[in-house]
Amino acid sequence: MARTIEPDCRQCRREGCKLFLKGERCTTKKCAMERRPVIPGQHGNSKRRVAFSEYGTQLREKQKVRRMYGILERQFREYYEKANKMQGATGEVMLSLIERRLDNVVYRMGIGTSRKQARQMVNHGLITVNGKRVDIPSYQVKSGDIIAVKENKQDNEAFKDLKGSKIVMPKWLEFDTNTLSGKILALPSREDIDSDIKEQLIVEFYSR
């Protein structure tokens, strides 16, 4: 299945919430959810969102999270199947695995302003893990891993405003904006992940 080509702002309107696909723009009044928080298409003029069936509600939650992280359907299902075989609550384990993707970590550390930009940085070989270049966005980081901008790429225009800035990030991560290097302090727990995600609905969707 190909990655969705639907415009970012349209995806947010489809899911009825901000997915933060366009970085800083999503926090301003330019955000589509601020200007026109209605579903796209012929039903967009209605202020009342369509009521979903149980299956529809589960599907929408799965699509929301998949779009939020920019993951293909096949990959997303693989995270569920892997989590289902591991100890712990399947939904929480699944979210932890997804949070540990390298592109998401680059975003969480503030290196990329959006997950899409972070994924491009990884694809273009701008990021290293423990001193080695890694260009696989889905790479799973481990506790203790050192994540950094490749030394000979630190003068890149994309990192100009990052140096010396202050960034708020989850407690399981640390990042020094002066050296453009950070560390995985621990594996992410459920409380470190977006609270508006209803992972149990996703588990129910794949358990059908």
Descriptive overview:
- The chain is α+β, with helices and mostly antiparallel strands and 208 residues long.
- 36% of the residues lie in helices and 8% in strands.
- The chain is built from eight helices and five strands, in the order αααααααβββββα.
- The protein has a five-stranded antiparallel beta sheet, covered by helices on one side.
- A hairpin with a 4-residue loop joins strand 4 and strand 5 (181-184).
- The chain starts with 7 loop residues before the first helix and ends with a helix.
- The mean pLDDT is 87.
Distance between the termini: 21 Å
List the quaternary state of the chains: single chain
Mean model confidence by pLDDT:
87
Note the overall shape. globular
Portion in beta strands: 5-15%
Low-confidence regions: none
**Beta-strand segment tally:** 5
Question: Approximately how much helix is present in the residues?
Answer: 25-40%
Derived structural class = alpha+beta
Largest sheet descriptor:
5 strands, antiparallel
Give the strand line-up of the largest sheet: 2-1-3-5-4
Q: Count every helix, treating DSSP H or I runs of 4 or more residues as helices.
A: 8
